[in-house]
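> Could you send the CWC25 spliceosome associated protein homolog prediction when you get a chance?

Sure thing. Input:
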Amino acid sequence: MGGGDLNLKKSWHPQTLRNVEKVWKAEQKHEAERKKIEELQRELREERAREEMQRYAEDVGAVKSSAASTASWS
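Output:
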């Protein structure tokens, strides 16, 4: 006689389509933010490695210092 699950009619029930959609959207947003952070961290590591190589080349004398080669505007 009872038919369906009355909890599916409750707004707080985790299996209602609206609540499933909210959770899915929140997970997608979290995943996009995580990927953005990973990309920024990767770019930062690459930039630091590039600067370290430049500094090493300047110390060895293979490359002139970038500060010495800039034009004087005064």
